[in-house]
Structures are given as C-alpha cells and as structure tokens.
Design brief:
Distance between the termini: 32 Å
Strand content: 25-35%
Helix content: 10-25%
Largest sheet: 7 strands, mixed
Order of helices and strands: HEEEEEEEEEEEEH
Radius of gyration: 18 Å
Shape: globular
Length: 233
C-alpha cells in the first residue's frame, strides 16, 4: 500500500451504521465519458463510467461521483452492457507484485470531484464474494473525504485489512482472482449527519457465473473445509 493511499485514507474519519442489509445494484445518472478523470493513472479509459451528479454540475459546482472497471496493464479489455455491468475474464495478472501476490486481470476505479466535494463524506464499498446479490453489509468499506480518484485491484493486500475508525474488510473470506462470479461496488455520499445523499454503483461479471445450486454446493464444501481446519488445530 503506497504512502499516497495511506495518507489520503488516514485523513478521513469513519462514520458507522451506513451499510445496508440489501444487495448493491447498479446506480448512476449517466453512463459514459467522465471528462478530466484519470483515476490517477496513465491510459486508464474514462469513456465507460457510471456517473452520478449531486447538485449542479454547471460551472464546476456540486459533486460528481464516478465508478468504472478496466483491464490491468495489457490484459484483455473489459466490455460492458452500457447499464453499469462490466465483463472481465477470470485469471491472475502476470505483472508485479502479481502473480506472487495474486491480482486480478482487471481493476475498479473511482472518482470524487467537484467544487462542493468537501461538503460530504464518502464510503467506497467493494466485494470479495463471487456469488450474486451480496448484501452491502457484507462488503468491505473505506471512508474517504474531499476530491479523490484512484484505480485499485481486489488483490491489493490493504483491501483485506481492518483498520478501526477507517476501514473494514469484506465479511466473505479472501478474494480469489480465478473465481468466476459477480463483484459489486458502490461509491456513496453522505451528509454530515450520516444520511445517504446519492451513490454510483456498478457490477463486474467475471467469466461464467455459477448457477445458484452450484454456489450452494460450493458453500457447503467451504464450510466442510473450515470444519476440517478447525479440528486439525
């Protein structure tokens, strides 16, 4: 985790009680190009972004939230349905620090901007569960404040951390970049009382998603493995 990310995150304060017991579904005002967004990288596409505007966007006032997904380095480009769902291939990226520290072949990227960005608090929700309809309360979450943009990979170690007063990791184990499934993300703005103002949300479908019956069998298998490990300790 680089110093820029650490300092940006530590400059924020976590406000509790915002995660919902409901799945994250795609949400945005427009889906398309977010002019001026670089997501703190070089060559990251900004032409397929789920964009939400809070307040007026004319004259630079208000706040703009943006979420997108894109390939990491020279992996296959992601496609999308124009309605907030992106399509990626499962697999482990070959660029450092992966594959020793496994990263997915795709990243998710987010953007907070606008003259009124300091007027709200924000949370970024992210998903390690390859199953469908993961509840928001099961997602990892990081508090953010002010204008901020970046591109992250679910394989990054810090996303699997718990930092009191700042972030919590997902409740569903560790991320597996080789697992087909669907991963959901939300960037949410809150007022100073902690009430949600608006959000941008997307999903990334990776490979062929297992049928619900298959997911249930996998869940039973994982439960069995956990039981075996506990007995072996």
């Amino acid at each position: 985790m680089n110093r820029t990310i650490i300092s940006s995150l530590l400059a924020t304060a976590l406000f509790a009680g915002n995660a919902l017991a409901a799945p994250i579904t795609q949400s945005f005002d427009t889906f398309g190009t977010l002019s001026g967004a670089t997501f703190s990288g070089s060559g990251i596409p900004n032409n397929a972004v789920a964009i939400t505007n809070i307040g007026s966007s004319a004259g630079g006032t208000g706040v703009t939230l943006g979420l997108t997904a894109h390939q990491r380095y020279f992996n296959p480009e992601l496609t999308n349905d124009g309605a907030g769902t992106f399509f990626a291939n499962p697999g482990v990226d070959t660029h450092a620090p992966s594959p020793a520290n496994p990263y997915a072949t795709w990243n998710f990227a987010f953007y907070i901007g606008g003259a009124d960005a300091d007027s709200y608090n924000y949370k970024l929700f992210y998903d390690f569960d390859f199953g469908l309809n993961t509840e928001e309360s099961e997602h990892g979450q990081i508090s953010l404040s002010g204008s901020f943009q970046d591109s992250w990979n679910l394989g990054m170690d810090f996303l699997d951390s718990d930092i009191p007063g700042l972030m919590s990791s997902p409740n569903f184990g560790a991320f597996n970049p080789g697992s087909p499934g669907e991963y959901s993300f939300a960037l949410v703005a809150y007022d100073t009382q902690g009430a949600e103002v608006d959000r941008s949300a997307i999903a990334v479908q990776v490979g062929q998603i297992p049928e619900p019956a298959t997911l249930a069998l996998l869940g039973l298998g994982l439960a069995g493995l956990i039981g075996v490990r506990r007995k072996a300790r």
